Amino acid sequence: MSDARSLVSGVAGRYATALYEIAQEANSLEQVEADLRALSAALEHSAELRDLISLPVFSRSVQGGAMAALSREMELGREVANTIALMATKRRLAVLPAVIAAVQALAAEARGEVTAEVTAAKALTKAQQEKLAKALKASVGKDVAIDMSVDESLIGGLIVKMGSKMIDTSVASKLANLQNAMKEVG
Length: 186
Hints:
The chain is of the alpha+beta class. It has helices at about 1-5, 10-25, 30-45, 45-55, 60-75, 80-90, 95-110, 125-140, 170-185; strands at about 115-120, 145-150, 160, 165-170.
């Protein structure tokens, strides 16, 4: 567990470690992860929710009430709902996205997984993601979870980030390298 704890630090790390350990003790880690994925999606799609957790103009009671209502509406489990309520009471909701990411990292580490952040010019199919995950697993020796995002400015190719390693096969990067090489010649 000490290796997993080194993945997280600071305020978000303390909340994430506590939530992770509570979920493990209650044998509800899968449910907690599902709740956190849903909460992350809600944060991604709602500017109002992002404002609520990050702007200091909202009082503790407003934040707490709104997050309690959100927890009920989303039918979040007790562990996640209680953690969110505590964070609202302590005015720590601004670190909620970091807590979500840290719990996901702790759970992945416990399963022996690493996460690859993959950015592509267009969304990869499920089969393409599985093939990429298999190739990356052969490289790192661990199961690889793909965190997919799309950036059309890449034109084509992929950017893969795993830990401190990055592989950039994007057309945009190759064009930039070619442009730099041409500047050096001229």
